[in-house]
């Protein structure tokens, strides 16, 4: 990945900037690297090692680290969510890489912009690159990565220290950046939240789409929900498994899902607000959406009980 040489000098980045941005680049790379390639980075960051199987389970199967999954209106790879991120490269006159919205690529772009701003020749160019860097931070990282890191920490003890280090590094970036003037576009343009009037199919779609439900629902979460609800979990795609659980005991499943949404609302709410206006802080937006899901799911559970 490169940034036009017209906006950066031929000299190296300052040591402080190099360390700050190299850390973010390295942390992001671990979501894409595995085996021997990852071992060196893990050792350099003084993180506990994890196996290739653990990497595959988390970053490929359970929680693929793509912005489009967490911010896209359908909760799936590609589409509008991926196009927004790819637009960053195009705006800089660069061709977006494959999987432009993968966390490794977004953090790599962010690090490149930060290093370029530190070493560019003119104050005007430095200011412009600083604005672009902050846009990437607020629009394509802080808008979804804190929740993703919470989910990773819950899903895999093996990467617990990685997720905490990444969360701290990202929070430091937010702390030294100008506060946003609006919510990220993906949140402003998000589809409607969960409602009690949804059909079963609509509800299943919403619950498996983070930007609609306000929470992440992994296969591991579904397995835990099934245990708490006292129902069996069928193997397969999450939507299919969730439908089967609701068919067995809708009230118990809905109540367990409501508790899951409530826990996520608390996770989002506990993060310190990073925007001057709390209403413009993504964490507050996510907390509100998760709380809405918790309330609606509890109401649906009560109605299901009453109908028996």
Compressed to H and E, one letter per element, the order equals HHHHHHHHHHHHHHHH
* Poorly predicted runs: 1-15
CATH class of the largest domain: Mainly Alpha
Q: CATH topology of the largest domain, anyone?
A: TorD-like
Query: Helical stretch count?
Result: 16
**Roughly how many Å apart are the termini?**
59 Å
Taking all Cα atoms into account, the compactness measure Rg is 20 Å
Please tell me what the overall shape is: globular
Helix content: 55-70%
Q: Going by CATH, what is the homologous superfamily of the largest domain?
A: TorD-like
What is the domain total for the residues? 2
Structural class: mainly alpha
Biggest β-sheet description:
none
Number of strands: 0
The averaged pLDDT comes out at: 89
CATH architecture term of the largest domain: Orthogonal Bundle
Can you give a write-up of this model?
- By secondary structure, this protein is mainly α.
- The chain has two domains: 5-186, TorD-like (Orthogonal Bundle); 197-307.
- Helix content is 65%, strand content 0%.
- The chain is built from 16 helices and no strands.
- α8 packs antiparallel against α9 (160-175).
- The longest helix is centred in the C-terminal third of the chain and has 26 residues, at 282-307.
- The protein is globular.
- The model is unreliable at 1-15 (pLDDT under 50).
């Amino acid at each position: 990945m490169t940034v036009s040489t017209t906006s950066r000098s031929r000299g190296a980045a300052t040591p402080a900037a190099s360390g700050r941005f190299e850390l973010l680049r390295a942390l992001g790379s671990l979501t894409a690297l595995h085996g021997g390639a990852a071992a060196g980075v893990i050792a350099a960051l003084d993180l506990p090692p994890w196996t290739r199987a653990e990497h595959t389970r988390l970053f490929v199967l359970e929680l693929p680290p793509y912005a489009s999954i967490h911010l896209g209106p359908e909760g799936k790879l590609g589409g509008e969510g991926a196009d927004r991120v790819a637009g960053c490269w195009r705006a800089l006159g660069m061709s977006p890489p494959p999987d432009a919205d993968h966390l490794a690529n977004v953090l790599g772009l962010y690090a490149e912009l930060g290093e370029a701003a530190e070493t560019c020749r003119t104050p005007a160019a430095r200011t412009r690159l600083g604005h672009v860097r902050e846009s990437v931070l607020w629009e394509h990282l802080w808008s979804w990565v804190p929740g993703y890191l919470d989910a990773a920490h819950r899903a895999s003890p093996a990467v617990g220290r990685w997720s905490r280090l990444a969360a701290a590094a990202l929070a430091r970036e937010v702390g030294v950046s100008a506060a946003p003037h609006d919510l990220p576009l993906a949140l402003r343009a998000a589809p409607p939240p969960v409602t009690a009037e949804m059909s079963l199919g609509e509800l299943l779609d919403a619950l498996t789409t983070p930007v609609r439900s306000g929470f992440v629902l992994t296969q591991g979460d579904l397995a835990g929900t099934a245990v708490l609800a006292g129902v069996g979990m069928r193997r397969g795609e999450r939507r299919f498994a969730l439908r089967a659980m609701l068919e067995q005991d809708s009230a118990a499943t809905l109540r367990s899902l409501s508790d899951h949404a409530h826990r996520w609302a608390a996770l989002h709410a506990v993060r310190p607000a990073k925007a001057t206006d709390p209403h413009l802080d993504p964490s507050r937006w996510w907390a509100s959406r998760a709380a809405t899901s918790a309330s609606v799911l509890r109401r649906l559970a009560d109605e299901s009980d009453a109908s028996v």
